[in-house]
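#lab-general

N.A. 3:47 PM
ok so I finally got the sequence cleaned up, no stray characters, all 312 residues accounted for. can someone with queue access submit it? mine expired

B.Y. 3:52 PM
send it over

N.A. 3:53 PM
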Amino acid sequence: MPLNLIPQHVTTSSIGHLLGSMDLLVGIDMVRCRFRFTAKVQQSLEDWFKVSAIGRDRATLESRVTIPVNDQCSLRLGLIEGSKGDYALLDVNPSRIVDPSGTRAVGTEEAVGAVEEICPLLEEWIVWDVQPKNWDLYRLDLTVDVETPGITQQVLAVAQRGLRSPRQKVNTYQAPSGDLETVRVNRKTKPTLSIYDKAKQSRTGPPRVRFEVQLNRSYLRDNIPTLGDLTERTARISFQHQMKPVINALKGDKRRLDDLKLDRAGMKTLRELGGHEWLRARGYNDTPTKSEQKRYRDFENKYDIRWVGDLF
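B.Y. 4:20 PM
back already:
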């Protein structure tokens, strides 16, 4: 799936409108499915690297194995055998199956096709008779990548502001330089949200930010219960519903400070103007020098700003 591109000057506001668009393309980065299986393949019995008895009276048997697909991707298959039935839990990264050396997330059709593609590998380990489209979804990572030339830090800062709430903690991770790299909200009972500098994380590609929603089973059960229910529409609706606070913050009702691309000299002028406004609002008039007045006037004309406070 290609990057979501904005065909004009990129601002935080234009990114917000893109994320809220009905034409938004949402990628799939991780899928966890659960389904019933009938037996382990006899030849594989000695190859399950972790087998343990769990639960009450140790009546449930848990097994795990990692199955290589290519140099960049492996499947994680777990089995639970107990009185309530025998279930397989499969973790798949469809992006690395479709594009082993890339960093993009694949679309919904490609993701479903990738899961179906690896079924022959599973046949060497287990026997099952449930079609992949009927497998229960237990985790689904939805992603959107947007190019952010020159405004990556502004986008992350606005996302952080949009997620702030008395009811949830926003975790941020910074580079040694102080630049924001990741903004994340970890929630136990609700989907987890992450917004991060994808170019820095992958060390490749153009400047871009990834918006990621990790849907858990409680959400999927009511909205996208099976792999067959995963479509472009259901993925987009779920992504936009969970990212709504970030989308609204990015859209804004007016041009904001984060939409300006200021160099160090521009930030210095902005701070000075803001200081003069703050002082005047409190009855203290500090008259700038003629050279300062010219610099302020040039700055205001260049960015069409008449009052710095309007940007906040």
